[in-house]
Amino acid sequence: MALSAGEVRKIKKAAVVDGVLPIFHERWSARAFADRDVAQEDLKRAFEAARWAASSNNEQPWRFVVGRRGTATHEKIRESLTGFNQAWAGKAPVLILGVAKTRFSHNDGPNGYALYDLGAASSYLTLQAAALGMTTHQMAGFDRAKARERLGIPEGYEFGVVIALGYQGEPESLGNEELIRRETAPRQRRGLAEIVFAEWGKAMEW
Ligand SMILES: Cc1cc2nc3c(=O)[nH]c(=O)nc-3n(C[C@H](O)[C@H](O)[C@H](O)COP(=O)(O)O)c2cc1C
Q1: Cα(106) to centroid of ligand 1, in Å?
Q2: From the CB of 126, is ligand 1 less than 6 Å away?
């Protein structure tokens, strides 16, 4: 029998490190979504957090198209997902498409940091959502041409991500052994020694 949603939450939670904000250890990407709607105020709070991310030249190049389940926008975002993602993300009460404006507004010059900045804003969104008891799952697996055409995204905006947002559901509701295995597996991260250097290739000593 699959683990319960509560048991999974315990497995997914990273070990707490003293002095680090707890929300960084609590956020994780669920694929099983509960059949529960997201209140408009909580959705708004997630975007209120996202809009305070830093960005190159304070361009704030991120734009989000939000589809609630039962709307044409949700359906269009869902249809643009790859088959693997459609199988589970279609059940999320909210699907968000994140795109980035690729030219600076002040001089129309190319903004090479647009996607970087969208990533920062998306990260804030996911953390705020987690703080409100919701779960998010970011996805690269979607058809950009389909999304551009169906959602009428103009040229000059690059595709970054689709984010499924809602409340964690029971793993069993995924109805697929491989998805349940992933949903209940502990999370993995590289150690600091592999990613933080005092000199290139030489781990920082703490
Ligand atoms: C930019 C990006 C793209 C991702 N694309 C997909 C995807 O297409 N399908 C999927 O199931 N998960 C996707 N993920 C989720 C990652 O696999 C997940 O964040 C990673 O395994 C770490 O797990 P955690 O978020 O629970 O800590 C994506 C995450 C990010 C940030």
Answers
A1: 34
A2: no
Using the mean position of ligand 1's atoms as its centre, give its distance from the Cα of residue 202 in Å.
28
The superfamily (CATH) of domain 35-167 is NADH Oxidase (3.40.109.10)
User: Residue 153 has which token pair?
Assistant: 């995204």
pLDDT of 2: 81
1-53 residue pLDDT tens: 789 999 999 999 999 999 999 999 999 999 999 999 999 999 999 999 999 99
Instruction: Please work out whether the CB of residue 141 comes within 6 Å of at least one atom of ligand 1.
Output: yes
pLDDT at 157: 98
Determine if ligand 1 sits within 6 Å of the CB of residue 85.
yes
Query: What are residue 129's phi and psi, to 5 degrees?
Result: -60, -45
Unique residue bearing structure tokens 């459609």: 86
Using the structure block, give the residue that is written with the tokens 């349940």. 180
Supply the residue whose CA is at minimum distance from atom 4 of ligand 1.
139
pTM score, whole prediction: 0.98
Cα-to-centroid distance, 179 and ligand 1 (Å):
13
Domain boundaries, the chain: 35-167
Question: If residue 135 lies in a helix (H) or strand (E), which one and from where to where?
Answer: strand 135-139
